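Bench notes, afternoon.
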Amino acid sequence: MSEKSFTLETDADGIAILTWDMPGRSMNLITEAAMEELSEAVERVASDPAIAGAIITTAKKDFSGGADITMLAGLFGEYEKKLAENEMAAIAELLERSSRLSRIFRRLETCGKPFVAAVKGISMGGGTELMLACHGRVVAEGAKIGLPEVKIGIFPGAGGTQRVMRMTDAVAGLQFLLKGSTLSPEKAKTMGLVEEVVSEAELMEAAKAMLREGLSAVKPWDHEGFRLKGAAAIWTPGGFQVWPAANGLYRKETFDNYPGARAIMQAVFDGLQLSMDQALNVESRYFAKVLRTKEAQAMIRSLFVSMQELGKGARRPKDVPASEIKTLGVIGAGFMGAGIAYVSARAGMEVVLIDQDQESAEKGKAHCASLAAKQVERGRMRQDEAEALLARIRPTTQYAELGPAELVIEAVFENRKVKADVTKGAGEWLGGGAVFASNTSTLPITSLAKEYRDESAFIGIHFFSPVEKMHLVEVICGEKTGKKALAVALDYVHAIKKTPIVVNDSRGFYANRCVTAYLLEGHLMLTEGVPPAMIENAGRMAGMPVGPLSLNDEVGLDLGWKIVQATEADLGPEAVSPEQKALLQELVEKRGRFGRKNGKGFYDYEGREKRLWPGLAEIAPPKDADKFDIAELKQRLLVTQALEAARTVGEGVVTDPREADVGSILGFGFAPFTGGTLSYIDFMGTKEFVALAKRLAKKHGPRFKPNRLLLEMAENGETFYGRFGTSAETGKAA
């Protein structure tokens, strides 16, 4: 055996210790080479009479991050190349290679020697499937166990669906698989997926003790006469209670948009009626089928490959030395500013939190305290960690305390004069190399930068609300933003463990332009007489997390009204929709409906409960729902956002397709199964998309008219990723 990722040693009791420690990696991953090594190790254990059993563990702090997803992407790339030559041969090869890991795990499970998984730290995906294939599992306290594949468009295809459903309650098992959630060791033990939970110091001894006590090398489902229990036995009264409801819940949550989630349901339902070997074959076939879908390709590319590349600094200027933010200034201690202070202090930075009076500054820190308390209550943070975090936040009214800050972020009210005042005030006290950033969501960075002493050191850092939950940060380069400012901003975003996208300056930048198009379409549908519930359902059926009316309530109708007014004042009346203007003016100015913030918007709110406001019928009388095509409504809500994304590319606001796609999913929840706004166009085909947009423009107006870039790409048969690639120059940073 060539021991590169795994080493195998046998102790005096005949227990083989198989230690996973991939060289040159911070985390163990399942690669094709690692699979071969594991296969060799299993055969060695099985064939050596001196070995009584084996323990699989890790020398790293974590057990495994799962399969190397780029390996799966490579499998599909090779499949596509061979498809034109011989379709059936290409499919057969894809099935053979994608099921290799499942066969190795099954060999481990049936080799005649007992294996125990001794797991610590993180165990995800294929690592968890390896753990489940073992005959016993001992997990260290504080570990995290998950099968998150469904979140990137695929599913656990190395036996995960079959073993989980045979080891735990059917309802709990389905939820675990379909949500891609992470389990604590204690929860995993309660579910029957883990036998023992011990301290990390006791891990190996507990695993050895399990083998010494005579652990069976035969799984329950491999014993003759094995019978499924409870609802896992499908054709039983219990099964009839669970499976129809489970299918209904699946469709309610996914609207059948996700082939990976559908395959989980199918593989589980079919597999539970078969022997384990047959069930694993069924699972493998569904897995290979899902790998061939455009949804899996799009989600793997955007939600795994691109996110990792951007998170690791793909857009960072390479010639600027790395920076470390030790002290951060935050001006504005409201909801947004306090959130920025919290995530920064959580990352270990000292934070100077400034507001116009001490009471407001202290209120911002109190919000941070409430966020930390929730983490402690949920077991995600220790009390001493929370106290240390809060000790790093210093509320004050004095700009003079910003002196040591390497980076300052203003998060004050979205008003040009207010922002100008704090920019000038803070600039007088900052050190010579400090970078100043604005958290503006709409105001152009180039114009705001004129108020700072050095425009090259001014940049936009746009957070999304709530800061502590949203993973995206939009970094905006003004016309004179320098490379150092960009590098510092990206280093900061990396430090707080969020995903950045870099865009160039424009009104609304990238994310807000697309979101605004989504909200506008919902408003126009309402004024056309589309019933409000139908609008909301169309949004969710299209793949958005919430309908446009719900989203507008969350953002604030009053904010939308201010944006419409500001746009009209700056660009003229032709720049706004008269129907939208009239609708928002009626709701905000005449009816006092601001959204969730005051309990009155498109919905009425009572605590967490909400219902559509009946008074909408007075403002926009609904027509018969049968007059509207739900498929077209869904198209309108996605196409309008994708068109706006294409316009940002045509204008040079977005220069890298990865950022458009990742930004659209993380920033405003654009239908994840599409891979993002530009992937939506690419996978549909630019020519077909342009034809669809033209049909919508003819029926609903010029807002659906494709821009020149799209028309040119359609004529040439180009895609965004084909034309712009993934190595665009970094913004306009000088």
